[in-house]
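Q: Fold this one first, please.
A: Sequence and structure below.
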Amino acid sequence: MYDLIIIGAGPAGLSAAVSAWQADLKSILLIERDRELGGILNQCIHNGFGLHLFKEELTGPEFAGRLIEMLKDTDVEVMSDTMVLDINGDHEVSLINTHGYQKVQGKAVILAMGCRERTRGAIAIPGSRGSGVYTAGTAQRYINMDGYLVGKRVVILGSGDIGLIMARRMTLEGAKVLACVEINPYSSGLQRNIKQCLEDFDIPLYLSHTITDIKGYPRVSQVVVSRVDEKFRPIPGTEMTFDCDTVLLSIGLIPENELSRAAGIVIDPRTKGPLVWENMETSIDGVFACGNVVQVHDLADNVAAEARKAAVAAARYVQDNQPHTGELTVKTAGNVTYTVPQRIHLPVTDKLVEISFRTNRVFGQCAVEVVDKDGNAVCRFKREYITPGELQKIAVPGKLLEGREEYLTVKVTEEQK
């Protein structure tokens, strides 16, 4: 019997393992399906990691390396090259590796499986099925880890951060990136990546556009790009044709939750991740989740911070499980698409309750408001701007939640100039 079992050894799992050990859990098992620890960080050779956690700029492998070195200072047991098949409500985990099939049990479990990329089939792009169409992450792995240049004339669909970073990476490797095409009227990536990866290399970004045809067989030879209206319908007569041999898809990430669903964990239809309380506990008692399996993050530093929160809560659960007497539901309004957490335990035991969220439109000067079920203001946070591509966070003082009932609502309102 382990105190804690952690599934996934990317930035979330590694950080959770180290933090749980520091919180005095001494029997911890970390399971990773790959042969090496680090997860997606191993193929992210660009810098920009670690500014918050380590106070210096690191590449993805360097960031992972720091966490792995911290892990070596613990007695955490690691099972790599191991696939988890099932989790049940008794915290029993079924797994398989080169030693065969086995079951292990923990007093608590943390889910840190990360996410996967949305593919061409998910958005049904019409046209030929020639080769040369890759998800951006797959192309990143081919170039950075295997040494293969996937193409020489490239069009990127979607402006997620991986796609933006790959625009720069392909350019540096000698390819010509013809355009980055985004169906929304705003970019879904960080502003710094738009500047550093597109504008600095004179790569055009076409907002409110999408690919309406892919031509060429056995390999892509052309793509047709069209402007879309407010309902994302292609506008006839706006077509642009690009001669290219490669299409990279950066069209969103999906939290990896097959294990969660099979275990009966409640999934939020908006985030596609487990519904969680403020301590990152899921709907199954003693099962916690963190990182991209809960919601897609912009920064690995934020993933690590969320993992620490889950680890501390798991340690608290194992060491001194105190029942809660009630809860608050967190609702959304005013162009806020979701929040994490979706529930808050009562009574509130933490000094601050952190709530992260995204919006579905760009805001200039605005305010994030939290109100109770009677419409009374709980707290208010001013913002200079908010974009859908950047995860937003607010920290609500726990004492302000005392005496609140049923639910809170998080909303964003424009400020009068």
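Q: Good. Now the second chain.
A: Here it is, same layout.
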Amino acid sequence: MINDLTVGHPLKLIIKFAIPLLLGNLFLQLYQISDMIIVGHLISINALAAIGASAPIYMVFLMIAFGFTGGLTVITAQRFGAHDDDGVRSSVFHCLLAALVLSILLTAGLIAFLEPLLHITNIPPELFEDAYDFMFVLCLSTVTIILFNLLSGFIRALGDSKTPLYFLIFCSLINIALNFMFINYCGWGVVGSAMGTLVSNSLAVVICFVYMWYRYPLLRLSKDFMTYDSHVMRAHLRLAIPMVLQFSILSFSIMIIQSVCNSFGSDVIAAIAAAMRIEQFATQPLLALGLSMATFSAQNWGARLLSRIRKGVKYAFWLSTGLSVFGFFVIRKIGSDMIAMFVDTGNSSGANNIALIIDIGQQYLVISTMFYFFLGLIFVFRNTVQGIGKPILPLMSSITELCVRTFAAIYLAKVMGYRGIMYAGPLAWFAAGILVVCGYFYYIRKFSKNNQFVWKMGEIRQKLKENGPVD
């Protein structure tokens, strides 16, 4: 269902848009957690550690997909907010063209440099073969991951966050079933987990495209709008490339942390990998709120409703604060029990110390929960700035995260051991959160002083749309 986010109470619209995003992200995280539980129980803790050790490489191209498609579809949402149907159709064509080119280049690059990348992350020799096999199959799914995120981005740009949820639920459930079948019945090991991702994403892309074609005529391609325009493409890439750099920098910083983590052995790798999955699950409400702000701000920017964007940010800030406090208490209460689900506590043997894994994972969660507030700031303010088409500040915040994470991971690990790694992410959230908040207010003050006539006309158009013309 198409939703115009330029009309109605901002808080209600933001929450309504965010809930399907949250549910979709939770299903995605449940799939990923289920995948690790299946691997940890049906194969071995070493297999779990191999997936966790290679995860940052997967996150690199996953974040590139998110950043690139997210940046491209900002233009689509802005054109929709401005009620420019031709602009929407032109945006769809140029987005698809850019995404296909990126998919081909990224797949080729990942396959060519996979082995060196695994060596860079300092993966222990006993985990290398499983990590390589797992990542090689995932590399083949790059095209489907990018296309699925792009198609979902088109639908969200029209204010519909429910439909991508349904496709994500379908994809996640199929993925879990295939992983269990490939590992338990086919005996494919970690390759079975990666194959489940490849097959389920391919199915989701086909179904999503067919649905979009029949349900949303506005998004259909036609010959009239399949003409390449270098100016239009530059407008899309102007937002997409900085977002790719932003997400790539974040992924690279996580890769550095993982490389340091990998030097502490399989137990630490498995513990932190499990804790990071739980952390990702716990912070999904904050992420969903941030994603909703990206579409909300993009549509309202297209409609030239600056005051409405400010109201939306205010509501989102307080909602984010409440969610951060809630996550703080819940994860501290049940974190250790959740970590225990990742390992087979009845079959502990050798060097695989289950009690140690649970203890290390719980330590990680205790530290990270104290900084959820700053992560919430990043999601709300960074996504808002991206939605209004200003990608430099988010890029600067990502560079800040890279510097802080790298320094903390390398220096604190030498001083404090593996516990130092646990402070790297939270300290980066603190630094980047302060930066994006200051940058947002800078932009708002700048825009408020300039083009006041444009903002006034936007408000007049909104009132006419809500109330109709006055006699």
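Q: Anything worth noting on the second one?
A: Residues 10-449 form one domain.
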